[in-house]
Amino acid sequence: LAQAYQGVRLLYLPSCKERENVVKSRRMIAVIVVIMLSVCTLVGCLTESNPPKNTDNLQPITVGSDSYPPFNFLDENGSPTGIDVEITTEAFRRIGYEPTFTFIKWEDKDILLEKGEIDCVAGCFTMTGRENQYNWAGPYMKSRQVVAVNPSSDITSLADLEGKAVAVQATTRPEQIFLQGLNSRVPNIKSLFCFEDRALLYPSLGKGYIDAIALHETSILQYEQDYGMDLRILDEPLLEVDLGVAFYKEDDRGIAERMDEVLDEMHRDGTLKAIIEKYLDDPEKYLGGVYASEG
Questions:
Q1: 229 vs 223: CA distance, rounded Å
Q2: Is 62 exposed, middle or buried (0-12, 13-18, 19+ CB in 10 A)?
Q3: Cα dist. 206→167, 197, 213, 215, 291 in Å?
Q4: For residue 272, how many other CB atoms are within 10 A of its CB?
Q5: Backbone angles phi, psi at 248, to 5 degrees
Q6: Are 80 and 73 contacting, i.e. CB atoms less than 8 angstroms apart?
Q7: What Cα–Cα distance (Å) separates residue 19 from each residue in 30, 34, 79?
Q8: 20 to 30 A from 107, CA-CA: which of 7, 53, 63, 263?
Q9: Burial (Cβ within 10 Å: 0-12, 13-18, ≥19) of residue 3
Q10: Local confidence pLDDT in tens for the 295 residues of the chain
Q11: C-alpha distance from residue 199 to each of 172, 195, 196 (Å)
């Protein structure tokens, strides 16, 4: 999929027609040589001032994420792919960068950004509530943080979580919501389990070790599709959020600002919708809240 966004290399070279007659005069040869050198110099200047768009001149940039289907995961060839991989690859290409995607421990993202070991974070990363913690590009789509339970569970609303055991991925918005009481509709729960590896949430729920899990709705739907697990998502969301690409707060290179403009451009030209609909049904559902002002 990433190959679909690699530019086609175009080379513009001046052509010369074969001369049918042999010019005997040295003076004539000298004139022709001077003219040819002038033309070549002119073409060289034009080419230099208007370089063709290709991938040879793209600067490297490193994007950190964990495995989070359908946003970031490895395909059958072991190459990164997904919604965020495609969106960021195209956005960076348009501003002159070629991203390398590296898998990180999600809770280490802030340290890695500060040390400069990664340039940005993209992986279904929630902007909402973190607007002042990072230098953001986006939002480029929206998502819902939700609670999921086993189909036979007696939990039907957020209020039913009172006295229950809930699991989340560490350093995510659901963790903050439960620990800091950010949603008044969420009652006091019995215990909160914070897993470093998000993949452990599902078997823990399936085995009955916990009563509910909380994370992005899109991730739950993808897991159900990939592994045939049947879960019930509560109608009442924990939080509706915007997703973006996060740079270090003190990053003053201007990349985030340029990328923000390009993401808006990608919405207008239909690129965002085309990418999202490869992975999710009803792409407008994930764009409407972000770009509602544009109708």
A1: 7
A2: middle
A3: 12, 16, 10, 16, 37
A4: 26
A5: -60, 140
A6: yes
A7: 15, 16, 52
A8: 263
A9: exposed
A10: 333 333 322 223 333 333 333 333 333 333 333 333 343 333 333 333 333 345 569 999 999 999 999 999 999 999 999 999 999 999 999 999 999 999 999 999 999 999 999 999 999 999 999 999 999 999 999 999 999 999 999 999 999 999 999 999 999 999 999 999 999 999 999 999 999 999 999 999 999 999 999 999 999 999 999 999 999 999 999 999 999 999 999 999 999 999 999 999 999 999 999 999 999 999 999 997 565 444 3
A11: 14, 9, 9
Question: In the structure encoding, which two tokens stand for residue 5, read together?
Answer: 């966004």
